[in-house]
Amino acid sequence: MAWTLPRTWVAGELITASIMNAHIRDNFDALKDPPSEVDPGTGTADYTTTSASFVDIDSTDFTITLTTTGGDVFVFISGGWNNSAGEMYVDIISDAVSLSRDGDGFSKPTGRNGAGTAHAMIPFLETGLAAGSHTYKPQWKISGGNTAKLYNGTSEEMNPVFMAREMS
User: Fold this and answer.
1) Tens digit of each residue's pLDDT (9 = 90 or more) over 146-158
2) Fewer CB within a 10 Å sphere, N or C end of the chain?
């Protein structure tokens, strides 16, 4: 249910059920159930990359398109991350633009300079969005020809989750 800009009430106006439903009930419903999507990993194989430039983690299962009413959007990806060596960078893309805005992503889930495994959630609140359709996807890269991994149900690590939700 979409948010409707509330009307300006006029003294002496006859209030009908359809007016009240559109401007009160339906707007409460929109606040309770904003546009959102949760994409869990498929659980079929771990995601890996050796790319030194940003690439989609999974362009099929981790692409979210929301039709928003103009509110801020909270986006996050979480999971079990591993890199063999070097530095892993993770970014979230909104409408083909990096949310980190600096070209290096905004998270190194396993820390700096070295191998490791970590459970990490990478959150971001995108503000100032116009109403309309917005597409989100996580990307990553790894330095030095090394291998980065996002566990996806093939080991004891947790499955990844990618989520976006409009905030009122």
Assistant:
1) 898 898 876 656 7
2) C
Residue 4 is which amino acid? T
User: Is 7 in a helix, a strand, or coil?
Assistant: coil
The average confidence (pLDDT) of the chain is 85
**Residue 48: what pLDDT?**
92
Both tokens of 91, joined, read 């970014």
Q: Which amino acid is at 24?
A: I
* Residue matched to tokens 């979480």: 78
DSSP state letter for 4: -
Q: What is the DSSP string of 28-69?
A: HHHHHS-SEEEEE--SSS-EEE--SS-EES-TTTT-EEEEES
Q: Which spans in the chain are helix H?
A: 17-20, 26-32
Residues 6+ apart with CB under 8 A from 90: 77, 81, 105, 106, 107, 108, 109, 122, 138, 139, 140
Strand partners, 80: 119
- Do 147 and 48 touch, CB atoms closer than 8 A? yes
Task: Indicate the pTM of the whole model.
Answer: 0.79
Cross-strand pairs, 50: none
Domains of the chain: 37-167 (2.60.120)
21 to 2, 3, 29, 90, 126: CA distances (angstroms): 13, 12, 10, 44, 31
